[in-house]
Amino acid sequence: MLDHKWNSKFVTAVFAGAFGILATGLSAQRSMADDFNWKAHSGETVSFLASTNPWTSAVMKYKGDFEKLTGITLRVDTYSEEQMRQRLVTVMNARSNEVDLFMTQVSREGMQFAAAGWYRDLMPLAKKETAPGYELDDLSPALVKAATFDGALVGIPLNIAGPVIYYRTDIFEKCQVSPPGTIDDIAKVAAKIKKCDPSVTAFASRGLKPALPYTFSVLLHNMGGSYMKDGKSNLCSPEGKKALRTYAGLLKDYGPPGVVNYNFYQLTSLYRAGRSAMSFESSNELSSIMENEQRLGDTGVMPLPKGPGGSHPITIGWSLAISKFSSNPDAAWYFVQWATSPKMQAKLALAGIAPPRKSASSDQAYKTWLDKQPVRKQWQQAIDFLAANGNSDVAYPIAQNPVSRQIIGQAVDSILLGTASVDEACKTADEKADALIAQQ
């Protein structure tokens, strides 16, 4: 079982040795890297299975640059997140070479995909052909660790993200409320906004069953709860019950109609259109929200406030992986290192993609971009908080993590819809989750 809770000093200590070995291994390749040839795989084609999200939209604007630099043809198939995973499962179960590269959330499916043997270990490729200046040890140690299974590095981080609250400063001012300082304050602020301006949704967050654990998990941890204790599901603990009751209550009393169908797309659209006062959604959605330039001037950003258990934000990110069944792993690795290079991540940062590289976040052009708008600086401050204090405990830390998300989502939605009490919902969830845990 993987422990995804991180402390910056602990991470530094753990990774100093690992990255030292890595640096030694890569430095041995420096003499060969000095004459690194970006055209080494010219004429080859690699297929990339991508999810529709801000990172994909941002990087695809430079697709022509990659093809010109390398001579490699990049064939891209883009689907919604769930459709992408369905497509990937079909291809991988067939052990097909149809997909060379794919996006993955190792916090979600990493253990499952690694156990199935679907990921290719990237370390041999990194040691074999790596461009000068790439520097794996510049990437977030926590995210690299999260993408490492049984010593194999299965993905390179594309971004760093976690749920944050986007809030309308103009509505807060009009309704004479301040940003919530605790979880209990959220309902108090939402109630005042609902009374002051009933035309807007006071508080919005994910309600779609497989998607809501991403946001619910922060509230659970801040309440002092956990998904597991002593090898068993722990949702019926007092902290777990309070988290279920609070999250479902916020959505029921202050959320939008049909919230049980809301994922990031619906939440972002609602907020971008000016129809929600608070939206608890991924930091990765900043660029999409800011497509409405009016939001640049009336938006504040903050982490979910603390609860009785403190403040424990979720920090995850997408990674780029190479299929174990790819016929062109070397050419695919060229795309991986181009897309995740310091230069490219600094460019993508200007599109609101929070960089997992230290060098990108300190890039002068990026700093200038942040300084141009207060909301960008608040967003970066929230990202820094996530990076320093976050964990990736989204749902149960088991290979059946995706299935466990459905169980959590069902528990919340049944309370929200009034089909089960908190006690009934958590009992059902614990029983189903324990059955999954027993399969490990």
From TrEMBL:
<keyword id="KW-0472">Membrane</keyword>
<keyword id="KW-1003">Cell membrane</keyword>
<keyword id="KW-0732">Signal</keyword>
<keyword id="KW-0564">Palmitate</keyword>
<dbReference type="InterPro" id="IPR050490">
    <property type="entry name" value="Bact_solute-bd_prot1"/>
</dbReference>
<dbReference type="InterPro" id="IPR006059">
    <property type="entry name" value="SBP"/>
</dbReference>
<dbReference type="Pfam" id="PF01547">
    <property type="entry name" value="SBP_bac_1"/>
</dbReference>
<protein>
    <submittedName>
        <fullName>Sugar ABC transporter substrate-binding protein</fullName>
    </submittedName>
</protein>
<dbReference type="GO" id="GO:0042597">
    <property type="term" value="C:periplasmic space"/>
</dbReference>
<keyword id="KW-0449">Lipoprotein</keyword>
<keyword id="KW-0574">Periplasm</keyword>
<comment type="similarity">
    <text>Belongs to the bacterial solute-binding protein 1 family.</text>
</comment>
